[in-house]
Amino acid sequence: MTLGAVKAGDIVLVDRKGRRFFAVVTARRERELEVEPIDRRVTYHVVKAREVIGIWHRSRARTGRTVEIVRSVG
């Protein structure tokens, strides 16, 4: 999956070594993402682009009050 549209704050579904988990993106590198796993039992903090299965983008309303999550799958 390409990481061109991924920004900090987005939620990603990752499959790393057969273990699937959700994580919040904290930073983006060229071919890797720095993430904070939602499940505390997961210790992976850097994932590669090929390990990302799904992306949920965070978009804000123009007023800045509402936050909705929009899913994109590649």
Description:
The chain is an all-beta fold. The mean pLDDT is 85.
What are the salient characteristics of this protein?
mainly beta
Distance between the termini: 6 Å
The number of helices is: 0
Instruction: Show unreliable segments.
Output: none
Structural class: mainly beta
Q: In one word, what is the shape? A: globular
Strand order of the largest sheet: 4-3-2-1-5-6
What characterizes the major β-sheet?
6 strands, antiparallel
Helix content: under 10%
What's a concise summary of this model?
The protein has no helices and 6 strands. A 6-stranded antiparallel sheet has the order 4-3-2-1-5-6, with no helix packed on it. The relative contact order is 0.27.
Topology:
Blueprint (H helix, E strand, L loop, with lengths): L10 E6 L2 E10 L3 E6 L8 E3 L3 E9 L6 E6 L2
Antiparallel strand pairs: 1-2, 1-5, 2-3, 3-4, 5-6
